[in-house]
Amino acid sequence: MNTLRLKKYEDRRLREGHLWVYSNEVDIAKTPLKTLTAGEQVHIEDFSGKVLGIATVQPNSLICARLVSRDVKYGLDKSLIVYRLNQALSLRERFYPEPYYRLVYGDSDLLPGLVVDRFGDYCVVQTTTVGMELVKDDIVQALVKVLNPVGILFKNDSKARALEGLPSYVEVAYGDVPQLLSLVENGVKFVAPAYEGQKTGWFYDHRESRAQLQRLVAGKRVLDVFSYAGSWGVQAAAFGAAEVTCVDASAFALDIVNQNAELNGLGDKVKTLQGDAFQVLADLKQQGQQFDVIILDPPAFMQKRKDHANGLQAYRRINELAMRLLVRDGLLVSGSCSMHLTRDELVDVIRGASRHLDKSAQVVFMGGQGADHPVHPAIPETSYLKCVIARVLGV
After folding, report:
1. pLDDT at residue number 110
2. Radius of gyration (Cα) for the chain, nearest Å?
3. CATH number at residue 82
4. Does residue 123 have an active-site annotation?
5. How sure is the predictor about 351, in pLDDT bands with cuts at 50, 70 and 90?
6. Is the whole-model pTM more than 0.90?
7. Domain end among 69, 91, 122
8. Segments forming the whole domain that contains residue 311
């Protein structure tokens, strides 16, 4: 293997548990990045020449290397991936009795650049680094060895791949994979669109927060905004809501909502509204509509740090629009998947929106990502999900 040597003192983060090497930490006089090939595996050395582990490299990126093993005897291959998959599987099986979860969550499962979502006998895989792309055959063989799935789909159409110079594609890598994949979440049945859906077709991350609906929605009128396939809204209906309205800009997503409602015998309780969420909420207010519970699970309004100001304004606006539609003492479920928005900022968004409307808010629940999205304690970027449930009171 080639070697990547770090500058003096730049080994501290790796020794403390981090997995990334930044290009400005490399001693390029001794180990020039330009001599390395994207995706190749290298030995990482400290300033004195002591080997710290094996990493895959991307010489054209700020994050120029990602540690895959601290033991130089084990590089990134089928054997190591099998070992990591078994580690990941043992964690998920402790928390989830049924095989529906995120099996691999990148850095947190010590497989940087790899995501695997499990839908029973099927796996949907995403590789977001060149290093992982180069071992895709090993990934497939490892999944077959550990899970013996019926089918494996590579859903490699994320924007993150473009940053690594990787092509976009969706292809079956093993067996057969149907268009719709079945899953069960909090006792409710769903189908997820494997090929045409967002990300891997489903978002398992809010599972624990969605379970809170069991205590909140019985007999209530519920509005689910940015509903996608109905993970929140259909569960609300299943948990006893009197009426649920799901709002999304995508007709395709709302068709999946209807299928999921029918799958659970809830077609008479769930209806859909297609349109821009901000405009739909404004229109509902103009119509004099009110709801007991409103759920906001928007896409990331802050995808980059530079988006913070505009993104914060978007969160403030959508939360205020929702509050205008709540009945007295109604509940607002406000989520964010923006890593650059802190939990405290989301709480302050709710405070500010309530005061702007001359109301008060009480935070009654704060949640985050589930155990199948474990947080790596040395990598803050692995903690991204927030959910705040607030009671909104009159003056």
Report:
1. 98
2. 23
3. 3.30.750.80
4. no
5. very high
6. yes
7. 69
8. 184-393
